[in-house]
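Onboarding guide, step 5: your first structure request.
Type a short instruction followed by the sequence, for example:

Predict the 3D structure of this protein.
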Amino acid sequence: MQKTKEIINQLEELKTKSSSVTKKKIRPGKIESVGGFLNNGAVSLRFIFHERENIVFALLQLVVIGIMYFIWAKSLSFIPEDYWRDDNTDDLVSVIVLLWSFVLVGIATFPLGLLTACMCASYLLHFEGRDSTVAECLKIVLPKSWSIWIFSWFDGWWTAWQILERLPKKNDKTPLTVKLAHEAAYQAWKIASLGVIPSLLSGNGIAEAAKNSISLLSSKFSMLAKLRLGYSLICWIFGIGAYISMFFLISHLSDVPAFATLFKTVSGFYLFAGIPTIAALVFVMLIFRPIYIISACRIYAYNAREHNQPILLPEPMPRILSAFVFFVALVIIAFVAWQYVSYFGGDNLLNLLPK
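The system replies with C-alpha cells like these:
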C-alpha cells in the first residue's frame, strides 16, 4: 500500500507540474495540430501495419470499453426510475452511481493500461532492433503492471470525468471560465504525461518516469502538443458526430414502440446512446488512438537517444502478483455487488441507506 501511495503522490506532482510548464509554452493552432498529428500518423501507421499485433491490442481495447460501458449502463436499471426523479434522493443516487463508476473505471483500466503499454513496448522493441511479438510485449509490460494500472486509473477517471463535464446539462451554472480552466488543466496533463508509460517500460520507476516525462515536455513541447491537440480535435469531431447522431436516431425512432419504451428509462437511454458512441470509437480506437500512442513512444525514444538515456528492455521479473490479485479481488467485489442487487432489487439496496 505504501508503494501505491508513492505512485499516486508522484502522479499528483506530475499533474501540478504539467499546468505550470505548459502555461509558459505557446500552444500550436488547431490546423497546425491536426497537420502535426497526421504527419506523425503517416510514420506510425506504417509501423502499425508492419507489426500487426498492435491492431489486436487496439481491437481488444475497443472490446473492453464496449463491455464495461454495457455493464455501467445496464447497472443503472437497478436503481428504480422514481429515484432518478425524486429531488430528495438525487444526491444519494449520485453518490452510489459515482462510487460504482469509479470501481468500473478501475476494472477497465487494468486491461486498457496493459494493452496501451503493449503498443508502446512493440515500438520500443522495434526501436532497439528486436522482434516485436505479443509474448515479448507482455514480458516487458507485466513487471510494470501495478504502476501502469494506477497511472491508467488516475488518467482514466479524469478522462471520464472530463467527458461528463463537457456534456450539456440542465440548469448548469458553471461559469465558462471555470470550464475552460478545467479543460486546459486536463489537456496539460495529457500532454505532460505522454512520456510516463514509455519511460516505465524503459526500466524506470514511477518517480523517474514522471521526471522524464516533464523533461520530454520541455524539450519536445511543440511535437507533443501538436500530437495531443490534433488527436483531441479528431476525438471531438467524432464525439460531436456521435452526439448528433444519437438525437437524430431518437427523433426518428421515438414513435417505434420498442424504442419508445427503451427511451423512458435512464438505463435504456444510455444503452441506446452507446450505439453511436461505440460506432465512433471503432474509428478512434482502431485507427487514431494506435497512431497517437505509437507516435508518443517514437518521440520519447528518439528524445532518449538524443540525451543518452538508456532504454532497458526487459528488466528482471519482479513480483507482479499483487497487482493481479488486487484486480481479481476488485472484479469479485463488483460481481458480488452486481449479483446482490440483481437478486434483491434496487429498492432493497437503497432502502438500506439513509435518505
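Each response can be followed by summary notes, for example: Residues 266-306 form the longest helix (41 residues).
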